[in-house]
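User
New here, help please:
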Amino acid sequence: MSSRISWRALTPIAAALALLAAAPAQAITFEQLAADGSGSGVFYTPLANDWILAPGANESSLSSTSGGWLVGLGTNNYGSGENGTQTSTIFGAGLLLPSSTYGWRIDFSANLRTWDSYNDGSVVAPNPGASLGDWDLFAVNANHQDFYWNLTAAGVPGGGETAVPTFAPLATASSSGTLVDPLLPVRPAGTPVSYTNQGDARYLPGSTWAWGGRDYAVGYFESVSTNGSVIAGGNNPTYVSFVLDTFTPDFNDSNYPSWGEFGPTGVFNDVPDGAEGEGPGG
């Protein structure tokens, strides 16, 4: 049974609404929208048991900061070149925002690292001698249907197998997940992209911010440190997911770890790099 059901039992909408307050300091922010689509100045401040861990997450994947949260992702491969392995799964965490009259805006920082690719070459060509594939994808998604890992291909390994202290239980992938790569109509290919689905069932629903590598080749390491946001209009409860996806077919494997974190807007913690290699476009 999906752990989001137990979340509803633990945190009724009435209780969640009581957590709406002024903007938290140093936090990923969840702001209610005003009628004109701007920010209303009313924020949601999640508690520890509001968070649902993705199938590949563990007790160190989610940590509190001064007033907010950091979502850690992947296998830290500090100081290593293009080698090593990590579990083929979906890393990260998410939460269910309560109903809001006009919807939500989510603001965050992204501090991410990869040796891999999320590029089919249709927009950005690979570097000479490099290869392409929809391998490792970092994404923040907000929609009214379900968490990211329940929308993508079913059977994510590791779901529900580990008891996680403090935070809500790990999610178990549902059998209804049908989306496969590509999850976005335009691959990120080394540059962040934002996409709002207008009803195309082939791609992630709702609003998505995403980043992945341009290509993969020996010594070619990519990183990004930037701010991002997603907006989910409408008055239904909103599922928000912060993920690194190394699992969704058709392109997926356990090679070449990717890692990083989503955190407070404008705050970029020290996320270790890999071994020195060519920079993007080098």
